[in-house]
Amino acid sequence: MENVRDPREHLNEEPRDDLFDVAIGFGGFFALLFVIFAVAVIIKFIIS
């Protein structure tokens, strides 16, 4: 039983900054929605 490792060590986890990942996700989603909004406004001005 000496080769048993503590499962709390999480050897497979990569050291990442979760807050930074969430911030990048929010920023990317905001940029996508802004592009969709801008295209919709341009199409509305072309139609009218």
Automatic annotation (TrEMBL):
Keywords: Membrane, Transmembrane, Transmembrane helix. It comes from the Bacteria. The keyword Membrane applies. The keyword Membrane applies. The chain crosses the membrane at residues 20-47. This is YqzM family protein. It comes from Paenibacillus montanisoli.
